[in-house]
Amino acid sequence: MAQAAYGQPRLRALYPFYSHGALHFLTTVPPPWPRDLGEPDLPFILEGGPPYSVCTAGYAELLGEAATPEEGVALLVANLPPDVGVQADH
Fold this sequence. Notes:
Elements: H1 2-6, H2 9-12, E1 15-19, E2 22-26, E3 44-46, E4 52-55, E5 62-66, H3 69-78
Antiparallel strand pairs: 1-2, 2-3, 3-4, 4-5
């Protein structure tokens, strides 16, 4: 899963971490606890598949399932907020 995520430039701009069998991403250097109100709730991927489930924060919604880690990562990237993981040109 981590290798598939590394293949996505938008995810390489984030901070990945594993917790409770899922691969999560943060926009800021950990730890964000107590929760920083500026940190967006990002989707995450449940490991242990196939299928690999992609959910919104807090398991509020199942965004979909994928047969491979690469498809799961692509689904996660497709559901990121538009400005998350985008590198600004300097």
